[in-house]
Amino acid sequence: xxxxxxxxxxxxxxxxxxxxxxxxxxxxxxxxxxxxxxxxxxxxxxxxxxxxxxxxxxxxxxxxxxxxxxxxxxxxxxxxxxxxxxxxxxxxxxxxxxxxxxxxxxxxxxxxxxxxxxxxxxxxxxxxxxxxxxxxxxxxxxxxxxxxxxxxxxxxxxxxxxxxxxxxxxxxxxxxxxxxxxxxxxxxxxxxxxxxxxxxxxxxxxxxxxxxxxxxxxxxxxxxxxxxxxxxxxxxxxxxxxxxxxxxxxxxxxxxxxxxxxx
Length: 263
Known about the structure:
single chain; alpha+beta; four-stranded mixed beta sheet
C-alpha cells in the first residue's frame, strides 16, 4: 500500500484509490503520516483540528474521527492494526507500506550527495526522480494546525532546493537552453527568489542571449528597488561579469563563486 501527500491526500492499494470525504479525518491522517511511526499526542491532534477553538466534546469527536480513519485504512489494507492507541495519543505504523514523502526525501538526498561529489549525470537523474513524485500542491492545500502547516512550508522549501540543484546539474551537463523556459516560469511563481534570476541570466548568456540576460537583471533590480533593497552580491557579480564578457561565465562548469546557497 502507498500513501501519497505530495499532491492530494490519497491511499493507493493495487489499482484502487481510497480517500476520506471528511476534512477532519484528512487532517488526522495527514498529521499521522507526517509523523509516521511516532506517537502523536492527543493534544496535538486536537490542535490540528480546532487550534484554540475546541468544542465542548472535542476529545469524543476526535475519537470518532480516528475510528472513521481506522475503517478507511482497514478497507484499503484489509488490516485493522494500522493505528495503535497509546496512553498519550496515537501512532500510525507504516510497516512495509510506502509514503511518497520518504521516497522524495531519499531521492533528494541522493541527488545532493551525487552533486556534491561532482557526479552531475547521476545527480540529475536522482533529482528528476525526486521531482517526478510530486503531483501538485502538498496535501492539495489542506489547512490544518501547526504540524500540517509547517510541513507544507518545509516541503515546499525542499522542492525549491531540489529544483535549484537540478538546474545546477543541467548547467554542469551543458544543458543551458533546456532550462530557460523552466526558469522563466519559476521567476513568475517565485518573484522574490533571487537565485532563479541568477540561473536565468547564466542560461541566457550561455545561449548567446546577452541582451536578454541583462534585461533579467534589470527586472531583478527593479523588484529589489521597490522593496528598498539592492540585488545580492552574487547577482551583481554575475551582472558585472556578463557586461565585461568575462570568459569564466562561458565555461561549462558552474562558477564556484555563483553556486547557490543551498548547495
